[in-house]
Amino acid sequence: CQKSRLKCLYMRLLLILPLPANASSCLTNMSLLTYAGPDGEKTWPKKYPFCGGVFQSPIDFHRDILQYDSNLSPLEFIGYNVPSTNQFTLTNNGHSVKMYLSPTMHIRNLPFEYTASQLHLHWGNRNKSEGSEHTVSGKHFAAELHIVHYNSEKYPDVTAAMDKADGLAVLAILLEIGPFNPSYEKIFRHFQNVKYKDQMVQVPGFNIQELLPDRPDEYYRYEGSLTTPPCYPSVLWTVFRHPVKISQEQLLALETAMYCTESDDPEPLEMVDNFRNVQEFRERLVFISFREGKLYKCFYAKKLHSDLCKSEILMWWSCCLNHYKNMGVSFSCGSLCSLFFHFCIVAWATV
């Protein structure tokens, strides 16, 4: 709480406010959670005050709110490679599919050490390609995976941590369409066994790190909230920059395999569109572990003998020459290219 005093005070204030008479049952019975319709997310704040408050998630990552932070280190994943002799429990909880993780799994290089609790997914439906919660420059991805951890240095379990300002750390992986993904299939192939609410199945252990992108050192970092009620602003988010690909068939299985209702319900309800809309950001900053810029990408394309960015390279190189002329540096184009090409390109990329 020392790092975010206002956030901590805000949470304490709302936690002592009286809730509606039926709210306590809703907090424990997430089957009542809906995203659309008369009881959709616009009505969440009536029962859960935090849902209408500040520090809410998900958000859109756009250039105006991004700030590079050289102190952001790659996360360290401890115990993520779980042997197949151990088993995870996969369950349909009525609004998502959730897999409980091993308590021997930890992440480090955050303000505290965090212990893994569970992972779950958010997705859309078969008729549209939008299913992620976080967006990048307004772009949705097909789905999103969250790996939830709690601050095990300060709290005994995830329940005790979830309403604390420094309680949770969530890793978010954006999913898009591409080739078949055998790592994700280790979870997806069990969906038929959890078609209905409260059904469970055992999943053999595997290396959970396989679910992460190839460059987990590049990510967005910000302080936000749970994306489902009670929407506690207790989450330190790490959203990986690079999406992970799953096949169209795998996405379709995710979008069509499960129901929000129990097996004996006479009117089964498909589990679709279980993602929250983007929230107002309200003068926060998102810190990024990578330097971004179109020219930076073009520079690497140029190194790989690609003509994709040829016109952009020439345009910015002209600007670079003018920059040195204005400084009184009297180099010819050829000599300046040979001496300062790498420095100049990278300098312009980070403006």
Automatic annotation (TrEMBL):
Signal peptide region: 1-23
Query: One matching Pfam family, short form?
Result: Carb_anhydrase
Tell me the protein's name: Carbonic anhydrase
Q: Which residues cross the membrane?
A: 329-349
Which keywords has UniProt assigned to this entry? Glycoprotein, Lyase, Membrane, Metal-binding, Signal, Transmembrane, Transmembrane helix, Zinc
| Record-listed E.C. numbers | 4.2.1.1
| CDD domains per the UniProt record, alphabetical | alpha_CA_XII_XIV
Q: Where is the Alpha-carbonic anhydrase domain?
A: 31-290
Is this entry keyworded Transmembrane helix? yes
- Function noted in UniProt: Reversible hydration of carbon dioxide.
- Please state which protein family the record places this protein in: Belongs to the alpha-carbonic anhydrase family.
Catalytic activity annotated for this protein? hydrogencarbonate + H(+) = CO2 + H2O
Which InterPro entries does this entry report, sorted A to Z? Answer: CA_dom, CA_dom_sf, Carbonic_anhydrase_a-class, Carbonic_anhydrase_a-class_CS
**PANTHER family (alphabetical):** CARBONIC ANHYDRASE, CARBONIC ANHYDRASE 12
Gene3D superfamilies, sorted? Alpha carbonic anhydrase (3.10.200.10)
Q: What class of enzyme is it?
A: lyase
One molecular function GO term is: carbonate dehydratase activity
Organism lineage reads as: Eukaryota, Metazoa, Chordata, Craniata, Vertebrata
Provide one Gene Ontology cellular component. Answer: plasma membrane
Q: Which co-factors does it depend on?
A: Zn(2+)
Organism per entry:
Anser cygnoides
